[in-house]
Amino acid sequence: MIRHLSLLRIEEPHTKSVVFSQFTSFLDIVERTFKREKIQFLRLDGTTSQQQRAAVLEKFSTHKGRLVLLISLKAGGVGLNLVAASRVFMLDPWWSFAVEAQAIDRVDVPLCVMLMLDTSCWPE
Known about the structure:
Blueprint: H1 2-11, E1 16-21, H2 24-37, E2 41-44, H3 50-62, E3 67-72, H4 73-76, E4 87-90, H5 97-104, E5 112-115
Parallel strand pairs: 1-3, 1-4, 2-3, 4-5
């Protein structure tokens, strides 16, 4: 994912992306990596207050330039307008594709949806 976002930084500097995970602990790891790599991001999860949520969504919609929204799958599945984004990264598969599809549908017309899988743990 970092490689893809780094390429976007060069090729499409104004692209906004949404990164979904069902695990907030996974988002914590991604957040640390983004800070180290100096990737601008916002975060939205179940601990975000309504006021903070509105501020995060407003900034994501109006920000000029590249920005990534880290969002928990449960917090981002319903009632969000993320049409400013054109890229979606699903960090882990959800038990129901319908839940994933609902989250992806928050992005109006995603140009790219990537499901990140670690194939090193699968037998050949």
